[in-house]
Amino acid sequence: MVNLKYAGPERGTVPVQSRWRAFRAGCGKKKDMSGKSVLYNKFVTGLIWTAVLLGLSFASSRNYLLFHTVAELFSIIVACGIFMLAWNSRRFIDNSYFLFIGIAYLFVAGLDLLHALSYSGSGILDEGGADVSTQLWVAARYVQGISLLIAPFLLGRKVRTTYVMIGYAITVALIVEAIFSWNVFPACYIGGTGLTAFKKMSEYAVSLIFVVSAGLLIRRRKEFDGGVLRLLVWSFVMTIASELFFTFYAGVYDFSNMAGHLFKVTAFYLMYKAIIQTGLVRPYNLLCRNLKQSEELLREEKDKIQKYLDIAGVMFVVLDKDQKVSLINKKGCEILRCDEAEVMGKMWFDAFSPEGIRSEVKRVYEKLVAGDVVPVEYFESPILTAGGGERVIAWHNTVLKDEQGAVQAVLSSGEDITARKRAEEKLEQAMGELKRSNAELEQFAYIASHDLQQPLLIVDGFLKLIQRRYVDKLGPDGNEFIESALDGARQMQSLIRDLLEYARVGRDKPFEPSDCSACLQRSLANLKVAIEESGAIITNDALPVVVADPTQVTQLFQNLISNAVKYRSEDPPRVHISAKRNGREWTFCVRDNGMGIAPENTGRIFDIFQRLHNKNEYPGTGIGLAICKKIAERHGGRIWAESGPGKGSTFYFTIPDREDSDL
Ligand code: ADP
């Protein structure tokens, strides 16, 4: 397969190009957007983070409630930040994992806020004692853990934010009601005894949920930027550590509780780093990741399309706005006699348009890209091959536009019709020659037969004179010779007359609406004597009006009916004439009950001078049916016969059903 040269997003509009370059530039550089080195940033972050932890530890030693409130508020603010970022960038970042977690963390923050407010000694919602606060804590962790468990399954799917919001609102409302109003939430802390088994089991269960969530996340690691993934996993680890510390604290003010909170703050901070920091400060990493994946998908799709295009028997070329080739298939390379690499990126018209038409086609293409002309869907034009030869191509074009409707590229499929064109040219030439020689022949036949008539009349006249004057002197032999000579002259006369008739068919007379019934009646009138003598019965159906030469239609009927009478059988001749419409033409039918024709002869009887009987049996010249054929063809129709010996014959001829306006 020929590999597609991937043009990538550079082929978008100008702003997309520059944004793309900025992304690429942002990816993988060891400097952040403000130009500071990553090492420096890490150092500063480490310092701040150490200060925060030390500050919190100090606060915890002086006033645990203060420490707790600050720690919880910190995680609440971070959780709200996560929500805000995920929500506002939902159209920007194509990753439903973050959107779902963002919404989940908003509700987790709500539960954590209630937890902080109901904490023992806070003096706000603490009348339920340490149990309510612990219950809220446990509930918040369950919601957080289960959300992180679900989130990996949403990767690559569309998240219906309204439903998710409603789902969380109902869940949190039920939890709050269960704790504050219905008192059905299992007890978590009993004053004097410490943590209940449910609380401890819950912390283990939540830890397990986090482990599984981390596992699921790692399995879908391809969907994440490496840095983001690391931060997320560390956040999970810290959460698990925090949970474990919470399993063995005895009092809500003891060391284990404080350590648990410190780990929680760290876990939230890491989540902050993962989403807020990465999403806001280095958004391009996330975007690059998504773009890279889209790019890869695009590449795969293009490879697939290229495969299909390569199988095609026609050439496919895509030209960009600047007339450069951005895609060509195998067939295209074959026609151009070039490798794909030699064609890709080349200025198409400069390289492959023959010089005579180059500037013109370039001008048209420029106008097309500018939107000044409407694209032509089909046209034929020559191209130059690598060997310097020319091929004629039949092009079909499709214009590829961007969202604003501006032309970005033109996709053309081209069929090499050089051989067909040459054959057509040869045929046209042969047809022209044939027409010319036919015309010459007709002219010759016309003049010859016309000029022959005169001397023949003289011969005929003198023979008759000799017969009249010298009938007694000639004796029986002489009279017989004269009779034979007269017979020959008569035959010659009819031959000349028929030939003249034949030659005349080619002499164009304008067509006009002709009533075929009237033509038939005229022909019957001309054949009156023969019909009466033979006792023939001629019948007909209704016949149409066609656009034709009425004299010739009359002659057609006349020739066919006179043959039907002439080549009769023992029975009196019966002839029936009918017509039937078949699509855009009329098929006429002249059926007789005569002697019939052997099927192998039904074709050749339409050739000039072809007779199936000798002139002693049936007089004739063998020109009548040739005239019929010429007339039918002149009208754009055909003529043929169906017959068998002793079965009678049926002659068919067609005349196209033209409108007057077709003339
Ligand atoms: P011609 O009648 O002068 O011989 P045509 O061209 O009219 O010439 O016919 C060619 C031959 O076709 C005839 O010689 C005859 O043998 C055969 N033919 C034509 N029409 C009929 C018919 N209706 N039935 C049988 N044979 C026919």
Which terms summarize this structure?
five-stranded antiparallel beta sheet; Helix Hairpins; 663 residues; rod-shaped; 14 strands; 4 domains; binds adenosine-5'-diphosphate; disordered N terminus; alpha+beta; Rhopdopsin 7-helix transmembrane proteins
Outline of the structure:
59% of the residues lie in helices and 13% in strands.
Task: Tell me what the structure shows.
This protein has 663 residues and is α+β, with helices and mostly antiparallel strands. It folds into 4 domains: 64-289, Up-down Bundle (Rhopdopsin 7-helix transmembrane proteins); 312-416, 2-Layer Sandwich (Beta-Lactamase), CATH 3.30.450; 422-504, Helix Hairpins (Orthogonal Bundle); 512-662, Histidine kinase-like ATPase, C-terminal domain (Heat Shock Protein 90), CATH 3.30.565.10. 59% of the residues lie in helices and 13% in strands. The chain has 20 helices and 14 strands. The strands form 4 sheets. The protein has a 5-stranded antiparallel β-sheet. Strands 9-11-12-14-13 form a 5-stranded mixed β-sheet. The protein has a two-stranded antiparallel ribbon with strand order 1-2. A hairpin with a 5-residue loop joins strand 6 and strand 7. Helix 3 runs antiparallel to helix 4, helix 5 (129-150) runs parallel beside helix 7 (197-219) and helix 7 runs antiparallel to helix 8. The longest helix is centred in the C-terminal third of the chain and has 52 residues, at 418-469. The protein is rod-shaped. The two termini are 54 Å apart. Mean pLDDT is 83; it is low at 1-35. Bound molecules: adenosine-5'-diphosphate (ADP).
